[in-house]
Amino acid sequence: MANDESNDQGTYVLADQPYERDTRYIETRITRDGGDGYPVEPGRYRLVVSYACPWANRAIIVRRLLGLDRVISMGVCGPTHDKRSWTFDLDPGGVDPVLGIPRLQDAYFARIPGYPKGITVPAIVDERSGAVVTNNFPQITLDFETEWVDFHRPGAPVLYPEDLREEIDAVNAVVYRDVNNGVYRCGFAGSQSAYDAAYDQLFSRLDWLSERLATQRYLVGDTITEADVRLFTTLARFDAVYHGHFKCNREKLSEMPVLWAYARDLYQTPGFGDETDFDHIKRHYYEVHRDLNPAGIVPKGPDLSNWNTPHGRESLGGRPFGDGEPPAPK
């Protein structure tokens, strides 16, 4: 089947080049005033995700923490995809039960015929038209936090407080550059020099984060914010895939005491660990990135049961949900 394009997973490494992420997203926004033509409206939109993807995992977590699962439906793609599109192979008949499509590509084409760029998750689809509204993942969670406030659950945390936004934005910028995208710059580096530079930048930032979090429970302020969500989804994948598959191997996360305790603290917080699927994560990276792992073999290890061990971060104070309360159990 090597010549069947539907089974071609695509190429991720370009020889002799550093990895550059394409960030040309569909930037339409869903807002209270409907300025882009898509007003906030319960029951109108479907968030399409994969639990394998760290960018989609952010939206899954924020939707759950804020209680937006009551007003925004969610379609879940399988952990793998082919060269062109994520697919709904987890659903009966391989078709999303709300959108009625087998491939997320269909919703992109409904918005922009022949859409030439990556078919990415997360994507928000307008259920009325079946067309993608946006795949601009950094803005999706910010809009969940600021534009959908009238539909947050009672007791929802304030994930993007106005008085901390400047600091949150600054932390997010360096974490994205050096960590969230930094692991990909290691894994998809096309030369030794590109890999070395990305590796050094990644672990320098992880050391910086360890110092920051040694004396405070959360990244910004004394409650969970957007900054913690963005860092968590990378840390959750670190030992399972990035350490080995992407050669981010100076240390495992479980060998970095501060970050390991911090990650376990979040994992054990409702809305984080219960929205993390290690099986989907491992299957995606090892089965899809065939230029890194030609046989598609998924490793049996590492043992991930240690995510539920005590973390001791309560001693630093802080209140996970501020004046609010955790979401109801799944």
TrEMBL record:
Residues 161-288 form the GST C-terminal domain. It holds the Pfam family GST_C_2. Keywords: Oxidoreductase. It comes from the Bacteria. Its EC number is 1.8.5.-. One of its GO terms (molecular function) is oxidoreductase activity. Residues 299-330 are annotated as: Disordered. InterPro entries: Glutathione-S-Trfase_C-like, Glutathione-S-Trfase_C_sf, Glutathione_S-Trfase, GST_Omega-like_C, GST_Omega/GSH, Thioredoxin-like_sf. SUPFAM superfamilies: GST C-terminal domain-like, Thioredoxin-like. The keyword Plastid does not apply. This is Glutathione S-transferase family protein. It comes from Gordonia phosphorivorans.
